From TrEMBL:
It comes from Nyctiprogne leucopyga. One of its GO terms (cellular component) is Shu complex. The gene is Zswim7. The keyword Zinc-finger applies. Keywords: Metal-binding, Zinc, Zinc-finger. This is ZSWM7 protein.
């Protein structure tokens, strides 16, 4: 986890990781904490994790991005290193309105990391560049 999240959120994600490693499930009290801290993003993010919708994309140089298959069927690129997602909800609810800490896609990335539920995909440098540039083409 990165220091872009508030300490209480970081701690909760660490507790979820610890509990999941020990028991292969997340206790109810931690799920309630997740809902309390992350609000309406929590349940949809858990659904994305359950559906194994998060893929960590890595290149030979070690560069990493995450792709999350959203509930709408669209693929979003997330960067956990700088706490960013390409989805419209992130731009509106997180950046513009400051109503949420993050969108369901980034929360799904963090939860997938904590639960070891990320799909893994290794691509060439050129393929990773194409993935990253493809997002920009959708915008403009």
């Amino acid at each position: 986890m990165d220091s872009t999240l508030p300490a209480v959120a970081e701690e909760l994600l660490k507790e979820i990781k610890k509990a999941f490693q020990e028991t292969s499930h997340v206790p109810d009290d931690l799920l309630l904490g997740l809902k309390f801290i992350f609000g309406p993003s929590a349940v949809p993010a858990l659904d994305l994790v359950d559906q194994r919708s998060v893929t960590r994309v890595t290149s030979p140089s070690g560069r990493t991005a995450y792709q999350v298959l959203g509930s709408s069927g669209k693929l979003y690129t997330c960067y956990s290193s700088c706490h960013f997602c390409t989805c419209p909800a992130f731009g509106f609810s997180v950046l513009q309105k400051s109503e949420s800490l993050l969108c369901k896609h980034i929360l799904a990335v963090y939860l997938s990391q904590a639960m070891g539920a990320c799909q893994e995909l290794t691509v060439s440098e050129e393929q990773l560049t194409s993935i990253l540039l493809a997002e920009g083409e959708d915008e403009g």
